[in-house]
Amino acid sequence: MNAATRANMLQLMSDLTIEQLNEIPKGFNNNMIWNFAHVIITQQLLVYKMGGLPMHVSDEKVELFRKGSKPERFFDAAYFEELKVLSDSTYQQFKTDEKAGLFKEYNTYATSYGVTLNIPEDAIGFNNMHESMHLGYMIALKNVL
Asked: Which domains can be identified in the chain, with CATH numbers?
């Protein structure tokens, strides 16, 4: 995981209202909050679940923000604050687990991007690209808000 990408996401959202964070502009199918939460959830699924390790996110959040989902409700400021804490805690937990050498096993996974992940390092690298791609989506969203 790359802390800079998530920090850039937070900076990008810092001057937006909760209404703007929830807005789905014409031509888009998601919003700022969904993209932010989606990268947190995807990292947990790709690196932890596919690596046979327990995830550090709730099943509810997985269902709300996994691949194929879309924003279906308004997320208030308290929920956004919870996501910010979760972003930091999952990053810190990843760094701790990486240092402890927990990422050893991996269940091969073919991504919708056309990349097959075979080992933990593949998943970590792909996750970094995925988070950067969603930062790009968020920049595009902000430009039309």
From this structure: 3-144 (1.20.120.450)
